[in-house]
Amino acid sequence: MARFLVTGGAGYVGSHAVLALVERGDEVVVIDDLRQGHREAIPPGVELIVADLADRRRLGEVFAAWKFDGILHFAALSLVAESMRQPLRYMAENVSNTLWLAEEAVRARCLRFVLSSTAALFGYPAGEPMHEGSRLDPVSAYGESKLMAERGLEWADRVHGLRSASLRYFNAAGADPQGRLGEDHNPETHLIPLAINAALGLGPELTVFGTDYDTPDGTCIRDYVHVTDLVDAHLRVLDVLGQDRSARYNVGNGNGYSVRQVIEAVERAGGRPVPWRSGPRRPGDPAMLVASNTLLRRDTGWEPGHSSLADIVRTAWDWRSRHPHGYRA
Ligand code: UFG
User: Fold this and answer.
1) Are residues 144 and 123 in the same domain?
2) Is the separation of the CB atoms in 17 and 75 below 8 Å?
3) Is residue 1 packed enough to be buried (19+ CB in 10 Å), middle (13-18) or exposed (0-12)?
Protein backbone atom coordinates (compact mmCIF):
# COMPACT_ATOMS: atom_id res chain seq x y z
CA MET A 1 0.00 0.00 0.00
CA ALA A 2 1.20 3.47 -0.83
CA ARG A 3 -0.06 6.93 0.11
CA PHE A 4 -0.70 9.60 -2.53
CA LEU A 5 -1.49 13.28 -2.41
CA VAL A 6 -4.05 14.16 -5.09
CA THR A 7 -4.67 17.83 -5.83
CA GLY A 8 -7.97 18.53 -7.55
CA GLY A 9 -9.15 15.09 -6.44
CA ALA A 10 -12.77 16.28 -6.29
CA GLY A 11 -12.72 17.32 -9.95
CA TYR A 12 -13.58 15.36 -13.07
CA VAL A 13 -10.38 13.43 -13.89
CA GLY A 14 -9.02 13.72 -10.33
CA SER A 15 -12.04 12.03 -8.75
CA HIS A 16 -11.83 9.09 -11.15
CA ALA A 17 -8.14 8.76 -10.21
CA VAL A 18 -8.88 8.86 -6.48
CA LEU A 19 -11.43 6.06 -6.87
CA ALA A 20 -8.97 3.94 -8.87
CA LEU A 21 -6.22 4.40 -6.26
CA VAL A 22 -8.58 3.51 -3.40
CA GLU A 23 -9.78 0.45 -5.30
CA ARG A 24 -6.26 -0.85 -5.69
CA GLY A 25 -5.70 -0.43 -1.95
CA ASP A 26 -3.77 2.84 -1.78
CA GLU A 27 -4.35 5.58 0.75
CA VAL A 28 -5.27 8.98 -0.66
CA VAL A 29 -5.25 12.51 0.71
CA VAL A 30 -7.05 15.05 -1.47
CA ILE A 31 -6.51 18.80 -1.56
CA ASP A 32 -9.26 20.62 -3.42
CA ASP A 33 -10.70 24.10 -2.98
CA LEU A 34 -14.08 22.87 -4.32
CA ARG A 35 -14.30 25.78 -6.78
CA GLN A 36 -14.86 23.19 -9.52
CA GLY A 37 -14.69 19.99 -7.52
CA HIS A 38 -17.52 18.20 -5.74
CA ARG A 39 -17.37 16.85 -2.20
CA GLU A 40 -19.81 14.10 -3.29
CA ALA A 41 -17.21 12.77 -5.75
CA ILE A 42 -14.81 11.79 -2.94
CA PRO A 43 -15.16 8.16 -1.80
CA PRO A 44 -15.68 7.44 1.91
CA GLY A 45 -12.46 7.04 3.88
CA VAL A 46 -10.51 9.55 1.80
CA GLU A 47 -9.21 12.58 3.68
CA LEU A 48 -10.40 15.77 1.94
CA ILE A 49 -8.58 18.98 2.77
CA VAL A 50 -10.53 21.95 1.47
CA ALA A 51 -7.79 24.45 0.70
CA ASP A 52 -6.38 26.61 -2.03
CA LEU A 53 -3.02 25.34 -3.28
CA ALA A 54 -1.75 28.91 -3.13
CA ASP A 55 -2.05 28.66 0.66
CA ARG A 56 1.54 27.57 1.26
CA ARG A 57 1.20 27.44 5.01
CA ARG A 58 -1.64 24.91 4.69
CA LEU A 59 0.35 22.96 2.12
CA GLY A 60 3.29 22.81 4.51
CA GLU A 61 1.00 21.46 7.23
CA VAL A 62 -0.23 18.73 4.89
CA PHE A 63 3.31 17.61 4.11
CA ALA A 64 4.16 17.72 7.81
CA ALA A 65 1.14 15.56 8.71
CA TRP A 66 1.63 12.81 6.13
CA LYS A 67 4.48 11.19 4.25
CA PHE A 68 3.55 10.63 0.60
CA ASP A 69 4.85 8.12 -1.94
CA GLY A 70 3.79 10.30 -4.84
CA ILE A 71 1.77 13.29 -5.96
CA LEU A 72 -0.86 13.52 -8.66
CA HIS A 73 -1.41 17.17 -9.51
CA PHE A 74 -4.77 17.68 -11.26
CA ALA A 75 -5.81 21.01 -9.77
CA ALA A 76 -5.58 23.82 -12.33
CA LEU A 77 -7.47 26.41 -14.28
CA SER A 78 -8.20 24.57 -17.52
CA LEU A 79 -10.46 26.50 -19.89
CA VAL A 80 -8.73 27.59 -23.06
CA ALA A 81 -11.20 30.38 -23.87
CA GLU A 82 -11.12 31.76 -20.32
CA SER A 83 -7.33 31.75 -20.44
CA MET A 84 -7.48 34.14 -23.39
CA ARG A 85 -9.46 36.61 -21.28
CA GLN A 86 -7.31 36.18 -18.15
CA PRO A 87 -3.86 35.12 -19.40
CA LEU A 88 -1.90 36.42 -16.44
CA ARG A 89 -4.16 34.77 -13.90
CA TYR A 90 -3.83 31.43 -15.75
CA MET A 91 -0.06 31.62 -15.95
CA ALA A 92 0.42 32.90 -12.42
CA GLU A 93 -1.88 30.35 -10.82
CA ASN A 94 -1.10 27.23 -12.85
CA VAL A 95 2.66 27.74 -12.85
CA SER A 96 3.14 28.89 -9.27
CA ASN A 97 0.83 26.24 -7.79
CA THR A 98 2.74 23.50 -9.63
CA LEU A 99 6.17 24.79 -8.68
CA TRP A 100 5.46 25.45 -5.01
CA LEU A 101 3.87 22.01 -4.76
CA ALA A 102 7.00 20.54 -6.34
CA GLU A 103 9.14 22.47 -3.89
CA GLU A 104 7.20 21.06 -0.93
CA ALA A 105 7.52 17.59 -2.45
CA VAL A 106 11.29 17.96 -2.78
CA ARG A 107 11.56 19.23 0.78
CA ALA A 108 9.60 16.21 2.00
CA ARG A 109 11.70 13.86 -0.21
CA CYS A 110 8.58 12.72 -2.05
CA LEU A 111 10.13 12.33 -5.49
CA ARG A 112 7.35 11.02 -7.75
CA PHE A 113 5.11 13.62 -9.36
CA VAL A 114 2.49 13.33 -12.10
CA LEU A 115 1.36 16.53 -13.80
CA SER A 116 -1.89 16.89 -15.74
CA SER A 117 -0.60 18.54 -18.87
CA THR A 118 -2.40 19.11 -22.14
CA ALA A 119 -2.43 18.68 -25.89
CA ALA A 120 -2.92 22.45 -25.97
CA LEU A 121 0.91 22.61 -25.91
CA PHE A 122 0.91 21.76 -29.60
CA GLY A 123 -0.92 24.82 -30.87
CA TYR A 124 -2.07 24.48 -34.49
CA PRO A 125 -0.61 21.19 -35.66
CA ALA A 126 -0.15 20.41 -39.34
CA GLY A 127 -2.58 17.47 -39.30
CA GLU A 128 -0.56 14.36 -38.53
CA PRO A 129 -0.75 12.65 -35.08
CA MET A 130 1.25 14.48 -32.42
CA HIS A 131 4.15 12.62 -30.87
CA GLU A 132 6.20 13.67 -27.87
CA GLY A 133 8.85 15.26 -30.09
CA SER A 134 6.37 17.33 -32.08
CA ARG A 135 6.86 21.07 -32.03
CA LEU A 136 5.53 22.77 -28.90
CA ASP A 137 3.86 26.03 -29.79
CA PRO A 138 0.94 26.85 -27.50
CA VAL A 139 -1.58 29.31 -28.89
CA SER A 140 -3.40 29.87 -25.59
CA ALA A 141 -2.32 31.13 -22.20
CA TYR A 142 -3.62 27.85 -20.78
CA GLY A 143 -1.28 25.83 -23.02
CA GLU A 144 1.58 28.18 -22.22
CA SER A 145 0.98 27.80 -18.47
CA LYS A 146 1.26 24.01 -18.71
CA LEU A 147 4.40 24.24 -20.83
CA MET A 148 5.98 26.48 -18.18
CA ALA A 149 4.92 24.04 -15.46
CA GLU A 150 6.47 21.14 -17.40
CA ARG A 151 9.71 23.11 -17.77
CA GLY A 152 9.81 23.88 -14.06
CA LEU A 153 9.50 20.19 -13.30
CA GLU A 154 12.38 19.42 -15.66
CA TRP A 155 14.58 21.67 -13.54
CA ALA A 156 13.32 20.01 -10.38
CA ASP A 157 14.53 16.71 -11.81
CA ARG A 158 17.92 18.04 -12.89
CA VAL A 159 18.64 19.74 -9.61
CA HIS A 160 16.68 17.76 -7.02
CA GLY A 161 15.96 14.37 -8.62
CA LEU A 162 12.18 14.91 -8.61
CA ARG A 163 10.93 12.31 -11.10
CA SER A 164 7.90 13.62 -12.93
CA ALA A 165 5.62 12.49 -15.70
CA SER A 166 3.80 15.18 -17.63
CA LEU A 167 0.73 13.61 -19.18
CA ARG A 168 -0.54 15.58 -22.13
CA TYR A 169 -4.23 14.88 -22.13
CA PHE A 170 -6.05 14.99 -25.40
CA ASN A 171 -9.85 15.22 -24.95
CA ALA A 172 -10.78 13.58 -21.66
CA ALA A 173 -14.33 12.26 -21.87
CA GLY A 174 -16.74 9.59 -20.63
CA ALA A 175 -17.58 8.53 -17.09
CA ASP A 176 -16.93 5.72 -14.64
CA PRO A 177 -18.31 2.58 -16.36
CA GLN A 178 -20.07 1.61 -13.10
CA GLY A 179 -21.84 4.97 -12.99
CA ARG A 180 -20.37 6.15 -9.69
CA LEU A 181 -18.72 9.31 -11.06
CA GLY A 182 -19.15 11.58 -14.04
CA GLU A 183 -18.38 14.93 -15.62
CA ASP A 184 -19.95 17.94 -13.90
CA HIS A 185 -18.38 21.28 -14.84
CA ASN A 186 -19.86 24.69 -14.18
CA PRO A 187 -19.96 26.22 -16.69
CA GLU A 188 -19.86 23.22 -19.02
CA THR A 189 -17.92 23.95 -22.21
CA HIS A 190 -17.05 20.46 -23.50
CA LEU A 191 -18.61 18.96 -26.58
CA ILE A 192 -19.86 15.59 -25.33
CA PRO A 193 -21.69 16.76 -22.18
CA LEU A 194 -23.16 19.71 -24.10
CA ALA A 195 -24.44 17.41 -26.87
CA ILE A 196 -25.95 15.08 -24.27
CA ASN A 197 -27.57 17.98 -22.42
CA ALA A 198 -29.07 19.22 -25.69
CA ALA A 199 -30.49 15.76 -26.47
CA LEU A 200 -31.93 15.40 -22.96
CA GLY A 201 -33.44 18.88 -23.04
CA LEU A 202 -31.22 19.90 -20.11
CA GLY A 203 -29.48 22.62 -22.10
CA PRO A 204 -29.84 24.68 -25.26
CA GLU A 205 -29.29 23.30 -28.73
CA LEU A 206 -25.66 22.63 -29.49
CA THR A 207 -23.72 25.16 -31.53
CA VAL A 208 -21.17 23.48 -33.78
CA PHE A 209 -18.16 25.78 -33.87
CA GLY A 210 -17.28 25.77 -37.56
CA THR A 211 -18.45 23.51 -40.39
CA ASP A 212 -15.96 24.78 -42.97
CA TYR A 213 -12.73 23.23 -41.71
CA ASP A 214 -10.46 21.31 -44.04
CA THR A 215 -11.65 17.94 -42.72
CA PRO A 216 -13.82 15.27 -44.42
CA ASP A 217 -17.12 16.62 -43.00
CA GLY A 218 -15.97 20.19 -42.33
CA THR A 219 -16.00 19.92 -38.52
CA CYS A 220 -13.03 19.69 -36.14
CA ILE A 221 -11.42 16.36 -35.35
CA ARG A 222 -10.35 15.51 -31.81
CA ASP A 223 -8.91 12.51 -29.99
CA TYR A 224 -11.37 11.59 -27.22
CA VAL A 225 -9.85 9.44 -24.49
CA HIS A 226 -11.98 7.73 -21.86
CA VAL A 227 -11.37 9.04 -18.36
CA THR A 228 -10.86 5.44 -17.16
CA ASP A 229 -8.05 4.96 -19.67
CA LEU A 230 -6.60 8.35 -18.76
CA VAL A 231 -6.54 7.37 -15.09
CA ASP A 232 -4.97 4.04 -15.96
CA ALA A 233 -2.15 5.97 -17.64
CA HIS A 234 -1.52 7.80 -14.34
CA LEU A 235 -1.32 4.57 -12.36
CA ARG A 236 1.03 3.02 -14.88
CA VAL A 237 3.41 5.97 -15.02
CA LEU A 238 3.49 6.07 -11.22
CA ASP A 239 4.69 2.49 -11.28
CA VAL A 240 7.53 3.20 -13.69
CA LEU A 241 8.52 6.61 -12.28
CA GLY A 242 11.41 6.49 -9.96
CA GLN A 243 13.07 3.68 -11.87
CA ASP A 244 13.92 6.14 -14.54
CA ARG A 245 14.17 9.79 -15.41
CA SER A 246 11.24 12.11 -15.88
CA ALA A 247 9.06 11.65 -18.93
CA ARG A 248 6.38 13.29 -21.02
CA TYR A 249 3.60 11.29 -22.61
CA ASN A 250 0.75 12.04 -24.95
CA VAL A 251 -2.42 10.43 -23.68
CA GLY A 252 -4.96 9.95 -26.43
CA ASN A 253 -6.54 6.90 -28.01
CA GLY A 254 -4.85 7.65 -31.33
CA ASN A 255 -8.06 7.99 -33.36
CA GLY A 256 -9.76 11.22 -34.32
CA TYR A 257 -13.50 11.85 -34.48
CA SER A 258 -15.24 14.86 -35.92
CA VAL A 259 -17.84 16.95 -34.11
CA ARG A 260 -20.49 15.50 -36.44
CA GLN A 261 -19.37 11.96 -35.62
CA VAL A 262 -19.68 12.76 -31.92
CA ILE A 263 -23.19 14.10 -32.45
CA GLU A 264 -24.17 10.91 -34.32
CA ALA A 265 -22.68 8.76 -31.55
CA VAL A 266 -24.71 10.65 -28.92
CA GLU A 267 -27.86 10.17 -31.00
CA ARG A 268 -27.16 6.42 -31.25
CA ALA A 269 -26.42 6.09 -27.51
CA GLY A 270 -29.50 8.04 -26.43
CA GLY A 271 -31.90 7.01 -29.16
CA ARG A 272 -32.95 10.61 -29.74
CA PRO A 273 -31.78 13.54 -31.85
CA VAL A 274 -29.24 16.14 -30.75
CA PRO A 275 -30.64 19.56 -31.71
CA TRP A 276 -27.78 21.57 -33.20
CA ARG A 277 -26.99 24.50 -35.44
CA SER A 278 -23.89 25.75 -37.22
CA GLY A 279 -21.99 28.60 -35.64
CA PRO A 280 -18.77 30.44 -36.39
CA ARG A 281 -15.37 28.92 -35.66
CA ARG A 282 -14.16 29.23 -32.07
CA PRO A 283 -10.87 31.15 -31.88
CA GLY A 284 -7.91 28.91 -31.07
CA ASP A 285 -9.44 25.65 -32.35
CA PRO A 286 -7.09 23.61 -34.57
CA ALA A 287 -8.83 21.61 -37.32
CA MET A 288 -7.38 18.34 -36.07
CA LEU A 289 -5.66 17.24 -32.88
CA VAL A 290 -4.85 13.54 -32.55
CA ALA A 291 -2.24 11.79 -30.41
CA SER A 292 0.42 9.32 -31.23
CA ASN A 293 0.39 7.14 -28.09
CA THR A 294 3.24 4.81 -29.10
CA LEU A 295 5.60 5.97 -26.36
CA LEU A 296 3.12 5.48 -23.52
CA ARG A 297 2.20 2.01 -24.79
CA ARG A 298 5.86 1.04 -25.17
CA ASP A 299 7.00 2.29 -21.76
CA THR A 300 4.02 1.25 -19.65
CA GLY A 301 1.99 -1.35 -21.57
CA TRP A 302 -0.99 1.05 -21.58
CA GLU A 303 -3.94 0.16 -23.83
CA PRO A 304 -6.92 2.48 -24.30
CA GLY A 305 -9.47 -0.29 -23.75
CA HIS A 306 -12.46 1.97 -23.01
CA SER A 307 -11.88 4.64 -25.60
CA SER A 308 -14.13 3.65 -28.49
CA LEU A 309 -16.37 6.61 -29.20
CA ALA A 310 -19.41 4.40 -28.47
CA ASP A 311 -18.11 3.48 -24.97
CA ILE A 312 -17.17 7.06 -24.18
CA VAL A 313 -20.54 8.43 -25.17
CA ARG A 314 -22.54 5.60 -23.57
CA THR A 315 -20.89 6.03 -20.16
CA ALA A 316 -21.26 9.82 -20.35
CA TRP A 317 -24.92 9.45 -21.36
CA ASP A 318 -25.66 6.98 -18.56
CA TRP A 319 -24.20 9.25 -15.90
CA ARG A 320 -25.83 12.44 -17.13
CA SER A 321 -29.25 10.86 -17.63
CA ARG A 322 -29.13 9.53 -14.04
CA HIS A 323 -27.71 12.81 -12.69
CA PRO A 324 -29.43 15.53 -14.72
CA HIS A 325 -28.22 18.17 -12.28
CA GLY A 326 -24.82 16.60 -11.74
CA TYR A 327 -23.66 16.03 -8.18
CA ARG A 328 -26.22 18.51 -6.89
CA ALA A 329 -29.03 16.02 -7.49
N1 UFG B 1 -17.28 22.17 -29.87
C2 UFG B 1 -18.42 22.62 -30.53
N3 UFG B 1 -19.43 23.15 -29.79
C4 UFG B 1 -19.38 23.28 -28.43
C5 UFG B 1 -18.22 22.81 -27.76
C6 UFG B 1 -17.19 22.28 -28.52
O7 UFG B 1 -18.51 22.54 -31.75
O8 UFG B 1 -20.33 23.80 -27.84
C9 UFG B 1 -16.18 21.61 -30.65
C10 UFG B 1 -14.89 22.40 -30.50
O11 UFG B 1 -14.83 23.41 -31.48
C12 UFG B 1 -13.85 21.30 -30.72
C13 UFG B 1 -14.51 20.04 -30.16
O14 UFG B 1 -15.91 20.34 -30.13
O15 UFG B 1 -13.63 21.11 -32.08
C16 UFG B 1 -14.05 19.69 -28.77
O17 UFG B 1 -14.18 20.86 -27.96
P18 UFG B 1 -14.04 20.82 -26.36
O19 UFG B 1 -14.35 22.20 -25.89
O20 UFG B 1 -14.86 19.69 -25.83
O21 UFG B 1 -12.53 20.45 -26.12
P22 UFG B 1 -11.21 21.16 -26.67
O23 UFG B 1 -10.68 20.30 -27.78
O24 UFG B 1 -11.43 22.57 -27.00
O25 UFG B 1 -10.29 21.19 -25.37
C26 UFG B 1 -9.97 20.06 -24.60
C27 UFG B 1 -9.77 20.50 -23.18
C28 UFG B 1 -8.61 21.47 -23.08
C29 UFG B 1 -7.40 20.86 -23.70
C30 UFG B 1 -7.68 20.37 -25.08
C31 UFG B 1 -6.49 19.63 -25.60
O32 UFG B 1 -10.94 21.12 -22.69
O33 UFG B 1 -8.36 21.75 -21.72
O34 UFG B 1 -8.80 19.49 -25.09
O35 UFG B 1 -6.80 18.94 -26.74
F36 UFG B 1 -6.42 21.79 -23.77
Assistant:
1) yes
2) no
3) exposed
* pTM across the whole model: 0.97
Q: Which amino acid is at 267?
A: E
Q: pLDDT tens digits for 169-212?
A: 999 999 999 999 999 999 999 999 999 999 999 999 999 999 99
Bridge partners for 30 per DSSP? 6, 48
Ligand 1 pocket test: which of 13, 171, 227 has the largest number of ligand atoms within 8 Å of its C-beta? 171
Up-side HSE of residue 42: CA atoms within 13 Å toward CB? 23
Same domain, 120 and 259: no
Distance of CA 94 to the CA centre of its chain: 14
Region at 145 (left for phi over 0; alpha for psi -120 to 50; beta for the rest):
alpha
| Residue owning the nearest CA to atom 4 of ligand 1 | 191
Residues 90 and 109 in one domain: yes
Atom of ligand 1 nearest to the CA of 120: 36
Ligand 1 binding site (Cβ under 6 Å of any ligand atom): 78, 80, 118-120, 170-171, 189-191, 194, 206-209, 220, 222, 259, 282, 285, 289
Choice among 12, 142, 169, 257 that is catalytic: 142
- Residue 213: active-site member: no
**Number of domains the chain is built from:** 2
